[in-house]
Every structure is written in structure tokens, then in C-alpha cells.
Amino acid sequence: MTQVTEWQDGQVRRAQDFLVAEEPLEIRLDGTPLSVTMRTPGHDLELTAGFLVTEGLIEKREQIVSLDYGKTDYGNTTNTQASGNIVDVQLAETSLDPEQIRRNFFMTSSCGVCGKASIEAVKAHGLRRPNPNFLLDPEVLCTFPNSLKAAQSIFDRTGGLHAAGLFDAQGKLVVLREDVGRHNAVDKVVGWALLAGRLPLADYALMVSGRGGFEIVQKALLAGMPLLASVSAPSSLAVRLARETGLTLVGFLRGRRFMVYSGEERLQPKTPRPISPAQLQFLTGTHS
Q1: What is this structure's pTM?
Q2: Rounded to 5 degrees, what are φ and ψ at 114?
Q3: How do 227-230 and 204-208 pair as beta strands?
Q4: Residue 175 CB-density burial (10 A; 0-12 exposed, 13-18 middle, 19+ buried)
Q5: Angle in degrees, CA 160, 56, 92, rounded to 5
Q6: Which of 57, 62, 95, 247 has the most other CB atoms within 10 Å of its CB?
Q7: Domain ranges, ordered by start, for the chain
Q8: DSSP letters along the chain, please?
Q9: One digit per residue, pLDDT tens: the chain, 288 residues?
Q10: Is 111 a catalytic residue?
Q11: Active-site choice (111, 117, 124, 278)
């Protein structure tokens, strides 16, 4: 908590406010720094595991030999201590060049992803078309936002966190993760699934509190999710990638309204609604 000055209707008062925690997390591969991300502390091992999946470095839990908090070295090898801001992971039978990977991640974080070349680079990671047999009732989809909001305990206190929730086809919220970074929230969900032995997530839908950007679509695809929904708008590149890969992409999911940008065939009501007289006249051409 922190003390703030609150202005409301011309009145000024001192008040206490909750702040969302934000600290750097250094991910190391076999002791070599791989990436640094600003995140909300908590579920760091899931975040790291999910990051490895959604960056295309691993696909299975068995590829992780060890995953634990690393140690801070203050220049003296005899004076090290465990740090809550370092996670060290060791992978099995990897030929990855940590330095090359680190440079690539730095470029991605600094300049973003754009253009056809970036899409081709993502495909090189082995993107697969998601499960074509996954179906979701639109009525069930409309329950996602309220379920997500009800489970956001930290957001209620701070108002400063993104959320990602994994839902099954019956609308049950399976797992929710919050983070100051929307990408991190997704990585935590994916990491939870990896460590629980649930990948690929071929029979689940992902709901995010932010917009459906290219990176979020990419992460959903690499985790095997067939449907991604967000409360805000997707980007043009996100829509393009979703259509090329067959992902169902939903935006502006609020209340009982949403927009489908790709893969509308997965959204099918369990019980067809009766046709109104006006619709019947239009379909039969008997309207005047």
C-alpha cells in the first residue's frame, strides 16, 4: 500500500491505495541469461515454463530437466544466495544457442513483430492448425467475462492487472492467472498446463482481459488452443494469423455481444433458436 492524494468533486484528501507489484524476472537457460521480463511476482515457474512453450523452444514437460529459482552471484562464487527474481531452467538434449536466442528475444521485445517475415518466422516454430472439432455454444462464451472478473482477486484491490483464463467447453473456468503484463498472464496459464501434463490445450478456450494482439494469438496457437477471446479489439496482424491457421478469434466480448474475426464455425448453439415470423418471411421471400 502507499499513501496518495485523492481529488474528487473538488475535495482533496489523503488516502491509502493498493499498488500492483512489478519486478524483473531473469530467465536463465543452463545458467546463461536468456530473457528478462517485467512481471508481477507469483507463479514464476509457470511463467518460465509457459515462456519456453510460447516461444517455440519446447513442446513437452519431459524436455525440462530442472526448473527452479536461481542464485544471485555478487562477483564472489562463494557468496551466492537464492533470488526470487531469477529462474534457472535446464533442458534435455537441446542444441539451442543461448546467446543467439537471447539476442532474438531482445529484438522482439524492443521492436515488436510485424510483416509477413515475422509470420513466417513464427511458422518455423512448428505452428499447427488447432482442433477443428472443438465447438462452443455462444451462450456459454458470453459467460466468460463475468467468470473472469469474479476470479480476479488482485485486480479488485489494485485495478492494474491483466488476466488470462482457461475455460472448457461447458464454460468452467479451469485456471486463471493475473500479471501486470498481458503476455505474462498467458504464459502463466500455458506453463500451468505444461507442468500439469495438459498440453496441447486442444479442448479449451482462452479469454484475456486485454486486446487480442499478434503475440497473444501466437501463444494460443503454440499451446494448441482452438479459440481465443478478448474484451477488446484484435490487431490486423492477429486477424491475419488467425485466419491463416484456422484459430477462432473473438473480440469485444462484453455482455451478450461479441465480434468473430476468424473461425466462426466453432461457435454453434447446442439448441437452435426458433425462427421468428419476420425471419421466416425474409428467408422464404414472402415479406413485402
Answers
A1: 0.82
A2: -160, 155
A3: parallel
A4: middle
A5: 115
A6: 247
A7: 23-116, 138-266
A8: -EEEEEEETTEEEEEEE-----EEEEEEETTEEEEEEEE-SS-HHHHHHHHHHHTTS-SSGGGEEEEEEEEEE-S-TTSEEEEEEEEEEEESS----HHHHHHHHHHHHHH---HHHHHHHHHTTT-----TT--B-HHHHTTHHHHHHHH-HHHHHHS--EEEEEEETT--EEEEEEESSHHHHHHHHHHHHHHTT--S-TTEEEEESS-B-HHHHHHHHHTT-SEEEESSPBPHHHHHHHHHHT-EEEEEEETTEEEEEE-GGGB--SSPPPPPHHHHHHHHT---
A9: 667 677 777 777 887 666 678 899 999 998 989 999 999 999 999 999 999 999 888 999 999 999 999 987 655 554 455 668 999 999 997 666 666 666 566 545 444 454 444 556 555 466 889 999 999 999 999 999 999 998 886 555 545 689 999 999 999 999 999 998 899 999 999 999 999 999 999 999 999 998 899 999 999 999 999 999 999 999 999 999 999 999 999 999 999 999 999 999 999 998 766 666 766 666 566 655
A10: yes
A11: 111
Q: Does domain 23-116 have CATH number 3.10.20.10?
A: yes
Q: Residue 29 forms beta bridges with which residues? A: 32, 89
What is the distance between the alpha carbons of residues 80 and 71, in angstroms, rounded to a whole number? 6
Torsion-angle region of 98 (φ positive above 0: left; ψ -120 to 50: alpha; else: beta): alpha
Judge contact between 262 and 249, C-beta under 8 A.
yes
Structural contact between residues 229 and 253, judged by C-beta atoms closer than 8 angstroms: yes
Interatomic CA distance for residues 217 and 248, integer angstroms: 10
What CATH number belongs to 138-266? 3.40.140.10
